[in-house]
Design goal:
CATH superfamily: HUPs
Largest sheet: 5 strands, parallel
Number of helices: 7
Order of helices and strands: EHEHEHEHHEHH
Structural class: alpha/beta
Helix content: 25-40%
CATH architecture: 3-Layer(aba) Sandwich
Distance between the termini: 35 Å
Amino acid sequence: MPGRAVILLSGGLDSATTLAIAKADGFDCYALSFRYGQRHGAELDAARRVAAAIGVNDHVILDIDLRRFGGSALTDDAIAVPKLPTPSSEIPVTYVPARNTIFLSFALGYAEVLGARDIFIGVNALDYSGYPDCRPEYVAAFQNLANLATKAGVEGSQITIHTPLIELTKAEIIRKGMELGVDFDLTLSCYDPSGSGEPCGHCDACRLRAKGFAEALV
């Protein structure tokens, strides 16, 4: 029987679909979001809406200040969010250094406290921005680390990092979410929304989202 699971929830369509998948699989879902110094709070508003709509046992929002480091268009006001496609050979400036490693580390600590052996993250390696910490080999390496570095892992309770979207196109993710009843109107994918939370329509995240809905014929 599935037990407790920690779900990394950003408020975007990928993490919303991931939460819906975990819920449909019978897990008791504990959502974890971060106020990490990103440009706006609109994505956290979306995460709250999604958590409430899909239903979670608890929703924790942690404060960590990655703006102290900067180095990304999402955490440094001196770096503009690009509104033109980034060449596929380059990692975009919207990449936040080590973000998924940081988030998964917190999720791992939360999972140990909860007695959870499952962590869900909505990374994708097909229709994505080319971030190095979204690849299958990265996830496999982190899962190995998780089982070496935790009391649970050493004592034989293996921790599993679930990536149900990693080999899906954005259109397939959208179709899967719709099958599970996800209300994508509640989600936000934009890197640079307006003060009222309206998406810009031109950043990488907005373009990937629009492409996915077009290909899903929705």
